[in-house]
Design a protein that fits this description.
The protein is α+β, with helices and mostly antiparallel strands. It is built from 19 helices and 4 strands.
Length: 450
């Protein structure tokens, strides 16, 4: 096997802010805005309270802030809590190269480390790209077997990105970066069996903490093998049936994996988004919502991979509802706004009319479809039917439109937490990150909001 780990480390080390194209810098800023929005909103989730209370009880002085909590904490505690909180709502961004959530792991680790080191915004942005690209390259290295074995790539693959990003911010060379990836890789864990529970967001927090700890320990002198990915008993062999060095080392389709970043505007698993978009399209084409009494059946065709991700047939809680295509189809058909967090309260699971819509929905799994594509067919009682096909895995190439939608999401999620003027100041501050000599005050703002 080729020296994949070291080669990926070399690629990560070579990334410099000055070499990043303008659209990549813009995408990074959009990732940061989205992260703050979902993390601040996530402070209302029990996961945040549990982990933050545990961090406070453990104590310890440190330089890093936990979003939504006063005080200062050790960097690894901050990375853990902020990482889990940012994934608590499952409203954070996605990249299909890892079939997971890169920003929720990489940015909280960097944010904590940057507060300790007083790092400039430009350096954080470059480190973020280094980690993001590394995570995606590891993702395609072991796809699709890694996912098929039941691993949650946010907790496993993204940890390599966290380690590479933090190593970059620390100025480690390629060999030490590869060693940090080794330390992160030996801790890589996260099972899809935890989907629909509070443990799923914990995966993101653990991966953020583990990658950060790996880089810091290597900087202190901890030695580790530099071949964790390709070793005969390493990550690829033990965690997947696939090994694709050419895909990992080659240039992605659009030059950077981050150009394939997918933002979410519905607060449910990304595997449900194509179905929601299909139903919205059909409602728009009809000019009015569908009535329960006029619909005989709703058939949703989707790739077989969603079966172990978001195909809970009868969700029993709001958290499980996020991972149910049938439930989300029922919400969309009933006119419920899936962009609102309260839609996924426990009380809404069997609200009037929802169960009746859900009972009309059948999921038909397909082989070889794009992983995030869905076809929704609505059969009316009069014998007519309409259908729509959407592939939610295609990134929005209109960055102006995307930025407007992300900013709107930011303001909407912060509306219950802060007055509009304060939210606008925080949004503007995040947008200026590359001009900041020290990004520490970003967390100060966020603490005040929550």
């Amino acid at each position: 096997m080729k020296a994949i780990t070291l080669a990926l480390a070399e690629q990560a080390v070579d990334i410099r802010y000055g070499d990043l194209p303008s659209d990549i810098r813009r995408l990074v800023r959009q990732c940061f805005v989205d992260w703050f929005a979902v993390t601040l909103a996530g402070c209302a989730d029990p996961v945040h309270r549990i982990l933050a209370d545990e961090a406070m009880e453990q104590g310890g002085n440190g330089p890093a802030g936990i979003v939504g909590k006063p005080g200062r904490y050790p960097v690894q505690q901050a990375a853990l809590v902020n990482g889990a909180t940012s994934h608590a709502l499952d409203f954070d961004d996605v990249n299909l190269a890892i079939s997971g959530h890169p920003t929720a792991v990489i940015f909280p680790a960097l944010l904590a480390l940057a507060q300790q080191r007083g790092s400039a915004g430009k350096d954080v942005m470059a480190a973020f790209v280094a980690g993001y690209e590394t995570a995606c390259r590891v993702g395609v290295l072991v796809a699709p077997g890694h996912l098929a074995r039941g691993y949650h790539a946010t907790g496993t693959v993204a940890a390599f990105g966290s380690a590479a990003a933090c190593a970059h911010l620390l100025g480690l060379d390629a060999r030490k970066t590869a060693a940090a990836m080794g330390v992160a890789g030996t801790q890589a864990a996260g099972l899809k069996a935890m989907f629909g529970s509070m443990v799923k967001p914990l995966h993101a927090g653990l991966a953020a903490r583990n990658g950060l700890a790996a880089a810091m320990l290597v900087e202190r002198g901890l030695e580790a093998p530099t071949d964790v990915l390709e070793h005969e008993m390493g990550f690829a062999v033990t965690h997947s049936s696939d090994f694709h060095p050419a895909a990992a080392l080659g240039a992605p389709e659009l030059g950077f994996h981050i150009r394939h970043n997918l933002f979410k505007y519905d607060a449910s698993c990304f595997g449900t988004i194509a179905t929601l978009d299909c139903i919205r399209q059909l409602v728009h084409e009809q000019g009015r919502p569908f009535r329960l009494d006029e619909v005989a059946a709703v058939t949703i065709q989707a790739d077989r991979t969603v079966n172990t991700i978001c195909n809970i047939q009868q969700p029993l809680s709001g958290t499980q509802a996020k991972f149910s295509i049938r439930q989300n189809a029922a919400y969309a058909l009933a006119g419920v706004d899936t962009g609102k967090l309260e839609t996924y309260d426990d009380a809404q699971v069997n609200a009037p009319g929802i169960a009746e819509w859900r009972d009309k929905v059948e999921i038909v799994l397909q082989d070889g479809w794009p992983s995030m594509q869905a076809r929704v067919t609505i059969a009316r009682r009069d014998g007519t039917q309409v259908s729509a096909v959407v592939d939610a895995g295609l990134p929005d190439r209109d960055l102006d439109r995307q930025e407007r939608r992300i900013d709107e999401k930011f303001m909407r999620l912060l509306e219950p937490l802060a007055d509009r003027a304060f939210s606008e100041r925080l949004l503007a501050r995040i947008g200026e990150i590359e001009h900041l000599d020290d990004i520490s005050d970003l967390t100060e703002y966020a603490i005040l909001v929550a």
